[in-house]
Amino acid sequence: MKRSLLITAFIVILVLAAVTLTISLTSSSEVMGTQADEEASDVPFWKTSIIYQAYPRSISDELPDGTGDLVGELLSSVVTGAHNTEDGAGITSKVDYLRDLGVGVVWLNPIYESPMKDFGYDISNYTAIDPIFGDMDDFDELVARFHEHGLKVVMDFVPNHSSDQHEWFQKSVRREEPYTDYYVWADPKGTDDDGSPIPPNNWLSVFRGSAWQWNEERGQFFFHQFLASQPDLNFRTPAVREDMQKILTFWLDKGVDGFRVDAITFLFEVKDLTLNEPEVPGSEDPDDYASLNHIYTTGLPETFPVIRDWRVLLDQYPDKLLMLEVYSNNMETLMKYYGNETYPLGDFPFNFLLIDHLKNRSELTGESLRTTVGLWLDNLPKGKWPNWVLGNHDVGRVASRVGEDLVDALNMVILLLPGTPVTYYGEEIGMLDTFISWEDTQDPQGCHWGQDHYQEHSRDPARTPMQWDESKFAGFTTANSTWLPVNPNYKTLNVAAQILAQTSHLKIYRELAVLRREEVFMKGNVSFPVITKDIFTFMRHLESYEQYLVVVNLSQKPVEVNLLQNTTQELPQKANVVMRSITDTSENTKPGMEVPLDKLPLTAGEGMVLTLSSEV
């Protein structure tokens, strides 16, 4: 009898475990902010913060060698260009700027020891700082200074692959235990007419061509989803997972506040390495990664228990953030990376929908933006938190993709919708892509496509040095050159100029950062009263609080819009302007003025934030 009960109990446990992987979704367009009854002290820092992505090579260089660093000897003033020797330099010197910007979290792209074949995403030592950025003392100083100023520090974590210069890989090549199976190795399926070994299957690298590289010393192929110098680690080997836990622990013990996990969907491949991935119909380039349907190399279910282990580890420390880089066209699949209340995984997978759907101005309408925003909100698992991203180091800058006139409006959208905004450095001032010649191209992805096609695929244009002032190299460095060219527009488009200007993208951003701290944005609902081809609107409302209406003109021409027509909810006749895009210079729509909602004038690409009475 006891044996029978034990078996029954075991079956029940298995069923419950399976249920934990099922994500319950909500379809409501009325989405809450943080729980209304949640005490402020209980709200995780990442829910109330702006996350700022700082690409270390391009923030500040004072060594100087033309490449950004963590800490140096000089501090470059963002206002005057003068130097001060009291506060250090590099990224650390920008702590006051970041604090004044309203940022709460700084996410650093990889600063680990690396041969830099993929600019830090090829790691040769996971617990050391690359000398190009400084040393561990510099990192400790950065963390201490940021924490003193109330800023959190989040690191990029790259578990899928290491550098081929990592000692693990070198020992794996030599079959030295316990490293023999630290990477994904496979025998050739035969030899070609020239006697060269043939890869075990047709799998492709993201950077083009076969994902298999022959190693003569070991006499096998190794698998690499990215560069051949970035061999994939074998997460089916328990020791690999244990070492990754140790790496996370090392940085957590140093005071790091969380991690952004790179390329998480690539962590596992099927065990059978003879399987070919199916071809995408109509593909004409067999070396292009997009020519295959990657059913055997991305998004495997074994990934979730690994994330769960990391979640458990981070939860042993107070208030740590786990962000996941997940690319998927399937919303149900994407939302699984949140986990659920009984099986929590990442705090959030990155929301790349705005990047995917804001590729150019011609496709951007009020309806398309509403659909894009709704895709995330309507599929969000119960109790989980949204996030909004306009750009990052892998795509062109948003101002170049959809237009400079939309800079303020789109910042209004991501900072005032419910959720956590993630800002890529320079977006706060409207930085643009920089033309990079073939001779100056650094990005391996661009280089792999060759001189005729590099501009379509290179990520360099969005990675150029931050534009601090009008001095040589935009105040980024005092060196004689920079690792990538500075955008020639830096003389007029820079932080110092926007601080001194009467109105600027930077000033609008700072105002938005202050505004979003109000209760209505932290806890209130969101609704979308008026959506047309040209107009996107949303309201933030919370009982007993002043309501806010955000209006965006997505057309490339001025409009006068009647918001009282075709609205899904009652609106007052008039509202008060809180802020507007810098493109609007009208005397009739200045902040503080009352404007009619049946004849609201908007310039091309303008965003406007309005307050409504609490009775509406």
State the main characteristics.
Immunoglobulin-like, eight-stranded parallel β-sheet, 616 residues, globular, Oligo-1,6-glucosidase, domain 2, six-stranded antiparallel β-sheet, TIM Barrel, 24% helix
| Mean pLDDT value | 91
Q: Which CATH class of the largest domain applies here? A: Alpha Beta
Helix count from the secondary structure assignment: 17
CATH superfamily of the largest domain: Glycosidases
CATH architecture of the largest domain: Alpha-Beta Barrel
Strands ordered across the widest β-sheet: 15-14-13-7-4-1-17-16
N- to C-terminal distance:
65 Å
Main pleated sheet: 8 strands, parallel
In the predicted model, the low-confidence regions spanning at least 5 consecutive residues are 1-29, 73-88
* Fraction of residues in helix: 10-25%
Q: Per DSSP, what share of the residues sits in E-state strands of 2 or more residues?
A: 15-25%
Task: Give the overall shape, derived from the CA principal axes.
Answer: globular
Overall SS class: alpha/beta
The rounded Rg comes to: 25 Å
Q: How many individual β-strands?
A: 25
Summarize this entry quickly.
The protein is of the alpha/beta class and 616 residues long. The chain folds into three domains: 47-160 and 241-268 and 298-433 and 489-512, Glycosidases (TIM Barrel), CATH 3.20.20.80; 161-234 and 269-297, Oligo-1,6-glucosidase, Domain 2 (Oligo-1,6-glucosidase, domain 2, Alpha-Beta Complex); 525-612, Immunoglobulin-like (Sandwich). An eight-stranded parallel β-sheet has the order 15-14-13-7-4-1-17-16. It has a six-stranded antiparallel β-sheet with strand order 18-19-20-25-22-23. A three-stranded antiparallel β-sheet has the order 8-12-11, with no helix packed on it.
